[in-house]
Amino acid sequence: MRLFILLLFTSISIISKAQQNLIIKITGSENKTSLTASVLLKGTTKGYTTDTTGTMSIAFPSNGRYTLIISAVGYEEKEETITIPYSSDTLEIELESSSHEMDEVVVQSTRTSRTIANVPTRVETIELEEIDEKSNMRPGNVAMLLNESTGIRVQQTSATSGNASIRIQGLDGRYTQLLKDGFANFGNFSSGLSVLEIPPLDLAQVEIIKGPASPLYGGGAIAGVVNFISKTPKAKPEYSFVLNQSNIGQSNVGGFASARGKKLGYTVLALYNKSNTYDVDKDDFTEVPESKEFTIHPKLFIYPSSRSTITIGNSLTSGQRTGGDIQVIKSGADAAHQYVEKNKTLRNISTAEVDMKLGNNKRLVAKQSFSVFDREINIPAYTFAGVEYNSYTDVSFITNANEHALVLGGTFGYNLFNEKDKSQNNRDNTATTGGLYGQHTWDASDRIKLESGLRVDVANYRNSLYTNTEVFALPRVSLLVKYSSKWSSRIGAGMGYKTPTLFTEETETIQYQNVEQLNNVKSEKSYGGTADINFRSPIGEDLAFTFNHMFFYTWIDKPLVLDDVATDHYRFVNRTEPVRSAGFETNAKFIYKENFKLFLGYTFTDTKAKYLYGNQFLPLVPKDKLNTALIYEKEDVIKLGLEGYFTGRQYLSDGTRTPGFSVFGFMAEKIFSRFSLFINLENFTDTRQSTYKNVVNGSHLSPTFDEIWTHTEGFVINGGIKLKF
């Protein structure tokens, strides 16, 4: 009996040493606030959540080392390794706030992975918080996200299809290069409908370089670069879902998921957009086309070691858009109603990237993409159909040593456009570009940083009528000077080029109809620069203030211009007189107690085409644009936003001027633990072009359409639900 009791107590003692209940308390490092947090035992699927006091109890089954992955909304994810048995029954873990200043944002578009405060090149960022807010307004694409940024305008190019392009500094959309994670797959023919086919749900950040950026990204980056940076998987899985509906018949259903293990990780985006026809002014023509669009984008992340990452992805988007006469769309054509424009698109982009750390502060990055863009346009008695194949290769070596950072690399691009037999023309074009580039960043001191770069490209473009090869040497230099902790400035200048293309904003508006094949035209060359001054300072204990003022200037030599050589017959030619864009942007931000944020932005743009006689102002470029936004946010509780935008008068192609106009919007989001509800009142003052003049002219059989210079759909209400796990 005594032996039995001894064995019993011995067993109990062993068991008690082999397991432990540990009380864990999660707090914020700033003020020891208790947090609602999640804890995951690394290497397992076991997860735990704190209660309202920020505490939880975890029963560890056996002795040994455990790694806890702790995460909370608004705080940096943290890993904590402990040994069981633990010396105490309670463990307190502090998390650092992720509500960092803009200076701490790391940018990728300059390839050196520096914080924004230490990059000589001027880079603007749209961060995850703002992306999340703008996706409430338009979850289907990034048009709203960009259009409400200072110095950027999303220009609608078609009254029936709703297509749009991105303009920076008042220049045509073909001069802005769009990138997704550094891959250039949205140029030339592929730029068609591109802004409408990039969803925001998987974006972590948007980086914008205004002014010449050709040394790193080659042709097409004359006005600037917009780089959409995707989310990457983390140890804590992320699952989000959005459902949105508007009063004008627009529906969006989308989801994003990501997770990471020791050797593998993944992200996947899926989105379906649907829109019914909408005719707000009752003229029998659509302001919003009927459309259906589906996007799926899975990415696989492979981690062979702690020093290397392999990323493989494929994005597929398929869409149909039908606009024009409402009766034709709903009931079919008859003798009095026949005009309709149908767009069918298929976009597939395959990407692969290898990122290897070769040693201390040395990396080798190799990127490869292949994309296919297939589009067909049908209007009465005319069909356009074409497919573009694009291959992009980039290999770069990056090293950071003491005060110096060096980027060396090479690119090769191949672009083939094939106009299909069902189309009424044969305008096949091929372009091949190879280049070498280098960029050196020198931290001369804590206050002075200099960045200089050079790119040499050899570009060949050819078709059945002619072939041409050109060599471009593209220097660029940028200087950052920090005068004090409050004052700093950047100045930069460089050169750029754009090879000839049939696909511009102008030819999009006429569905590429009656446009001659390119013949004996050359690349456009540019010279430009930016200079800015920055100030930031607290005003008292509760108010923070930041201010930025930037001047810009771009000169485009021998611009490619679409000439009307006969009635409704067009040809591209190089003009001897240049296009010049100059102006400035001013931005101010006030933050009161982290809850109230006031943004003010003003853009002055003076863009002229010197080849024009008389009035030389380029059409659809407002001289004045004012952006304002007042945001109230109580973290994890509610968001409220009131926005107002004023756009000044614009010249149209016929020399007439539009009136200035204002647009106001209001957004509210109520946040719960696992989901949020949002509502958005866009353009609640109902500003629309048809209140000034009808957009559609002529008969229903052969209508003509005015240039689009403001909203066409008027006041829109949308709302929905977002789920996050």
TrEMBL record:
Keywords: Cell outer membrane, Membrane, Receptor, Signal, TonB box, Transmembrane, Transmembrane beta strand, Transport. Residues 117-225 form the TonB-dependent receptor plug domain. This is TonB-dependent receptor. Residues 364-683 form the TonB-dependent receptor-like beta-barrel domain. PANTHER family: HEMOGLOBIN AND HEMOGLOBIN-HAPTOGLOBIN-BINDING PROTEIN 1-RELATED (PTHR30069:SF29), TONB-DEPENDENT OUTER MEMBRANE RECEPTOR (PTHR30069). InterPro entries: Beta-barrel_TonB, Beta-barrel_TonB_sf, CarboxyPept-like_regulatory, Plug_dom, Plug_dom_sf, TonB-dep_rcpt-like. GO terms for molecular function: siderophore uptake transmembrane transporter activity. It is a multi-pass membrane protein. It comes from the Bacteria. Residues 1-18 form the signal peptide. Belongs to the TonB-dependent receptor family. It comes from Flavisolibacter tropicus. GO terms for biological process: siderophore transmembrane transport. The keyword Translocase does not apply. It is found in: Cell outer membrane. Pfam families: CarbopepD_reg_2, Plug, TonB_dep_Rec_b-barrel. Its main location: membrane. The keyword Signal applies. GO terms for cellular component: cell outer membrane.
